[in-house]
Amino acid sequence: MTRTQGGGRPLAGLLAVLAAQAALLVAVGLLITHPPAGWWDPREGALVGWLAEHRNPAATAVSSFASAVAFTPAVVTVTAVAAGLLLLGRRWRPAVLLAGAVAVQAALFVLVAHVVDRPRPEVVRLDGALPTSGFPSGHVGAATALYGGLGLLALHGVRGRWRVPLCALAWAVPVLVAFARLYRGMHHPTDVLAGAANGAAALWAVRRALPARQERPRWLPLDGPVAVVFNPVVVDGALLDRLCALLAVPGGGEPLRLPGAADDSGRAAAARALAAGARTVVACGGDGTVTACAEAVAGTGATLVVVPCGTGNLLARNLGLPAGPEAALAAALSGPVRRIDLIRAEGDGFPERAAAAMVGMGLDAAVMADTGRALKRRLGWPAYLVGAARHLGDRRIALTVTVDDGPPVRRRVGTAVVGNVGALQGGVRLLPGAAPDDGVLDLVLVQPHGLRGWCAALFALVTGVRRSGPDAPLEHFRGRRIVLAADRPCPRECDGDPVPGGRVLCLTVRPGVLLVRAPGLPAPAAAREAVA
């Protein structure tokens, strides 16, 4: 519902993009097949020759299967079945995306292959003579458009523990197909790269051309005057205007607009909004802005509406809100008012503060501190993976954990995370039993032993298959008050914002102090049983 276009503009834009895509592929192909002197080294075929010399029955069988899933009959069948199932569920947009991307890349493949007419590698080709030339790879293009599209649908449409495995499986298929086509002697390396680019560009072009949903959701009326507190670094004027236009319909007037200050992430702005009589505060920004507004709104009887505009957006994800700001606002306005908990965080070296999602000590805090704003803006939440790779070898922390009135527990950990919510980016559930309205806090100790331990921890995170005990890579605790005491000063963070390093964190739940508008909250019972 964020994009309004005339009937002919999407098609005209799509045709223009596809024409440019075809021209670029033809130009690259002709540069490869008819290079100016010294522009191209024809020895790229050495890789194909090496693979042909080192074939074995097992690899040949795998390559045969990988090629088969991208042959025309398989691609047509999978596309038809997937699109048909989507249409049965009245999901015409994903169906058109999938079928359109496959059809577009196929048309461009035929055109470019005819014009470039590149010979296939001079090795024994396991698939024999094919009617088309080698550039670009039609198999890789089809696999990228089809299985890449299925992965994209899984990313946006699947929730829970299967989201990441399904995405990874779908996106691994084009890579496997590319290797198979090289192994079987059917393409040069640049052929498969061009095929992947053709499929990915077709998927992007069709997705971009699809008109957004135009229907306006039915939402419940807002309670009293509305104020929008926004982070001016990530929310520009155009987006702010669109959000306020959405709020003006159910709110009965133009919302008050208040930019957050850099030194408090918007807490003072939210307090000014409440003092001006606002009964609904809309927090537009990342986790820092949302937490600052939540701290100001908690206990006042006013309601918080979360509009995710940052990198992590953990609270928004765990409230069931979509990723886009306008879609998230519409979804929040369609939901009832609910009570959720907050975390009171205290420690040596920083004053008491609130957290709405997670508080961490160790590796996760180091990653938050070392991941720059520019990298986050460019990559989104995967930027944190880059930061994590830098700290996997950090020395572990000797940590003493006290939960409520229980005895102290001593562990050596890579990181400790206390959560009011359970899900990370990508749908990975770090704390399977956590829910923002259950009145308790959840703690996970990530305690890997070497590379094998990190692999075990990653497997447990992705699959949700976990074992209990002090020797497990992930150990869980639950309580209303959790104290973490480290043997040395460590990096610490609250809702993604670094706080001064130190040795102690004292975290206490504030049950039901915050009113939020949200479409739905997860039911934690089944997830808790899985951890128990």
UniProtKB/TrEMBL annotation:
Gene Ontology molecular function terms on file: kinase activity
Family annotation (SUPFAM superfamilies): Acid phosphatase/Vanadium-dependent haloperoxidase (SSF48317), NAD kinase/diacylglycerol kinase-like (SSF111331)
InterPro entries: ATP-NAD_kinase_N (IPR017438), Diacylglycerol_kinase_cat_dom (IPR001206), NAD/diacylglycerol_kinase_sf (IPR016064), PAP2/HPO (IPR000326), PAP2/HPO_sf (IPR036938), YegS/DAGK_C (IPR045540)
Residue ranges of the TM segments: 12-32, 65-88, 95-116, 136-155, 162-180
Superkingdom, taxonomy of origin: Bacteria
Keyword Membrane annotated: yes
Protein keywords: Membrane, Transmembrane, Transmembrane helix
Pfam short name (any one): DAGK_cat
PROSITE patterns hit by this protein: DAGK
Domain (DAGKc): residue spans on this chain: 266-349
Protein name in the entry: DAGKc domain-containing protein
